[in-house]
């Protein structure tokens, strides 16, 4: 076994794994080896473990917190632009009325 700095503890277990096998959790990006992982910004997400970059939330969704692994759907009869970062970005579709961020009818 190497130095204590070469290994990390896995969750609540006493198991140690080599640091080079570490990856970033879903919602975080970066190499995850010897540097910290960075939380995905609002309006972006990452659904899997690994070093993949964060992706913008699709149109019709939003994410208003950092470190997200899934974007939230806009309310009924509303839509939003790519990378929306607040529920108020969800506005009524053509032909519907209501308040931004709420279901429209």
Could you please describe the fold and organization of this structure?
The chain has strands at residues 7-9, 16-18, 28-29, 38-39, 44-45, 55-56, 61-62, 72-73, 78-79, 91-92. The N and C termini lie far apart (64 Å). The radius of gyration is 19 Å and the shape is rod-shaped. With 105 residues, it is mainly β. Helices cover 0% and strands 21% of the residues. The strands form 5 sheets. It has a two-stranded antiparallel sheet. The model is unreliable at 1-11 (pLDDT under 50).
Question: Could you name the key traits of this structure?
Answer:
about 100 residues; mainly beta; about 0% helix; about 20% strand
How are the SSEs ordered, and which strands pair?
Elements: E1 7-9, E2 16-18, E3 28-29, E4 38-39, E5 44-45, E6 55-56, E7 61-62, E8 72-73, E9 78-79, E10 91-92
Antiparallel strand pairs: 1-2, 3-4, 5-6, 7-8, 9-10
Number of helices: 0
Decide which structural class fits the backbone.
Answer: mainly beta
Shape category: rod-shaped
Largest sheet: 2 strands, antiparallel
Beta-strand share of residues? 15-25%
- The low-pLDDT segments are 1-11
Mean pLDDT: 85
Give the helix level as a range of percent.
under 10%
What is the number of E strands?
10
The strands making up the biggest β-sheet line up spatially as: 1-2
SSE succession: EEEEEEEEEE
Ends: how far apart? 64 Å
- Roughly how many Å is the radius of gyration? 19 Å
């Amino acid at each position: 076994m190497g130095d204590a700095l070469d290994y990390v503890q896995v969750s609540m277990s006493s198991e140690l794994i080599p640091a080079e096998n570490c990856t970033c959790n879903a919602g975080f990006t970066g190499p995850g080896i010897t540097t910290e992982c960075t939380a995905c910004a609002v309006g972006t997400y990452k659904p899997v473990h690994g070093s993949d970059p964060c992706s913008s939330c699709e149109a019709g969704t939003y994410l208003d917190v950092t470190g997200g692994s899934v974007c939230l759907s806009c309310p009924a009869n509303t839509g939003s632009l790519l990378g929306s970062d607040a529920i108020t970005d969800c506005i009524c579709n053509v032909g519907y009325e209501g308040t931004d961020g709420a279901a429209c009818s």
